[in-house]
Amino acid sequence: MSYAVKEIFLTLQGEGMQAGRRAVFLRMAGCNLWSGREQDRAAASCTFCDTDFVGTDGEYGGRYDAASLAAKVGEIWGESERRLVVVTGGEPLLQLDAELIDALHDRGFEIAVETNGTIAAPPGLDWICVSPKAGNPIAQRSGNELKLVWPQAGIDPEELASWDFGAFLIQPMDCAQKEAALAAAIEFVMQNPRWRLSLQTHKALGLP
User: Fold this and answer.
1) What is the mean pLDDT of residues 151-178?
2) Helices (H), 27-152
């Protein structure tokens, strides 16, 4: 299979339960909830995405087979241990498959995925983060962390809390009303202690 990759870069994980951990981010091109074109945003199934996942023109972007993509991820990581690759998008489960999972494992990587949950995760992943989007059917209702962008109309956090996840996170929406979104997220967590606040620390630090 040929994988369309937007970009690959080394950084710190900025969100969720693994925040602060060194990681290679492997951003796959494409998404099933939005084309990535601004003219399509208002009518998209997800209207608040803050990521450029269109095309293959980012750092180390391009088309790869499984072996060459795993090799590039390994090259970017370097020689240190505790290897972590975060496969993200767009929607990475449109492309991530057993062949690529095996190739990354063969290079010694723990594989984390960040998905909207509309596609069931393949076997073999080491960490699954699901970020559901209102109005879209969810196929992946289990994993390591559920990360709900907030506030989000049309989604019921009480229903989500019944799903099989190790941690339940609320993350303020990155939007024009950032301060209001942060206040709403804090208020939600204060009223619902099962949930934990997740912040995009990489943006505060100026990291990609």
Assistant:
1) 95
2) 66-77, 98-106
Alpha-carbon span 30 to 164, nearest angstrom: 27
- Residues designated catalytic: 25, 31, 46, 49-51, 114, 202
Q: Could you tell me the two tokens for 120?
A: 């069931």
Q: Do the beta carbons of residue 167 and residue 145 sit within 8 Å?
A: yes
DSSP string computed for 125-176: -SEEEE---TTS--S--EEEEEEEEES-TT--HHHHTTSEEEEEEEEE--ST
Q: What tens digit of pLDDT does each residue of 21-55 get? A: 999 999 999 999 999 999 999 999 999 999 999 99
**Distances from the Cα of 176 to the Cαs of 28, 47, 167, 173, 180, in angstroms?**
26, 13, 28, 9, 9
Q: What is the mean pLDDT of residues 108-126?
A: 98
